[in-house]
């Protein structure tokens, strides 16, 4: 049965019991994809199910060409979609989510989006625009920065309170990064607005966590065959979810603590924990795993050699760079990460983790290396991870098969990587990505060893050698 408002009551899966017609938009979200629908929209749906947050419905906004597909899917289904949580034992928890009540594709009608943002009822703007989405060099009036600052300018002129802007992207200090980007754009396009924003607009930092792979055709087919739901774009995710949010909102917020969100004064310790343990470990796994022939994350993470490598990276190199994390058992968190990576039901792909590395490695792994260079702590495993990226970026695996390197800098990085058999430091001499790491002798020594081992012996032998060194 096709999923939409008229068929909802007939579906034999968990679904909203609340009246969606009574929900008003209080949150506008840029970047509606799998993660937003598995995470922030999931939390609002839980609140609505409790009879709360009726004024906090979500309106999605797309600004990129590919967002047309999301608009088409959500419009056809009245904003409804199916969230499938896959447990490690293979069982599935299936629920239709109803918290997204509208969606706009901004390039078709930017004025409507600006007026939506300028409306007093819009009190929070949230973002999942990817780690690389905060560059304003090529941003125009139809970008997220252009739309949001135009709306803030109207709110200022009309005497309407500002909204809060919440980044939910995997960036250290994501709220601070968002503040700088929006403020810089405002300085260029709306004279005087940044001063008003400094006084009236807040940008709380946040930490978000739920592994959400790309939806594949078999997910759609299985949902229809097993559960009787024809959904154009369902979402699959792991059962685990977390959201830590700095409690700094200018015009109210939903009671998110009622559905498990941790609201705190300082997100930094939780943010560093997640970025340097989970996200950096994903990068520690993916390039070695792809080169060794793995294509699914759970297969690689279930390999004791790979699991041991990740745990040693987390214990010896990442953990010393962290701040105390109140209420978190770090050893248990690290063990849980390996279990989450090994969940066979999620079927996350190695290729997804390898994508956009030039945005990910500098934000998640290089800070670990730089901190440990300063303190004298080990960097051997982190340097090997960077070398595995460099080897992967050559675009050919260990069987001579081509690798599709998906990265905004691929045209620049792949030729450099191909030259590194003659110049082993070519990749890390790219200062735009690596800064001065090519001038750090201790890093260079460990990196050269790992890259040479990858070229000579391959990924698996390199990891086995590193394991013997650690004993």
CATH class of the largest domain: Alpha Beta
The spatial strand order of the largest sheet comes to 5-2-1-6-7
Rg (CA only): 23 Å
Q: Could you say which structural class the secondary elements and strand pairing correspond to?
A: alpha/beta
CATH architecture of the largest domain: 3-Layer(aba) Sandwich
User: How many structural domains does the protein architecture include?
Assistant: 2
Given as residue ranges, the uncertain stretches (5+ residues, pLDDT < 50) are none
For the biggest sheet, the summary is: 5 strands, parallel
CATH superfamily of the largest domain: NAD(P)-binding Rossmann-like Domain
Mean pLDDT score: 97
Shape: globular
Portion in helices: 40-55%
Beta strand %: 5-15%
* Count of helical stretches: 20
Q: How many strands appear in the DSSP assignment?
A: 11
CATH topology of the largest domain: Rossmann fold
Distance between the termini: 57 Å
Keywords:
471 residues; alpha/beta; 2 domains; 20 helices
Task: Please explain how this structure is put together.
- With 471 residues, this protein is α/β, with parallel strands linked by helices.
- It folds into 2 domains: 257 residues, 3-Layer(aba) Sandwich (Rossmann fold); 203 residues, N-(1-d-carboxylethyl)-l-norvaline Dehydrogenase, domain 2 (Orthogonal Bundle), CATH 1.10.1040.
- 46% of the residues lie in helices and 11% in strands.
- It is built from 20 helices and 11 strands.
- Strands 5-2-1-6-7 form a 5-stranded parallel β-sheet, sandwiched between helices. The protein has a 3-stranded mixed β-sheet with strand order 4-3-9. Strands 8-10-11 form a 3-stranded mixed β-sheet, with helices on one face.
- β3 and β4 form a beta hairpin.
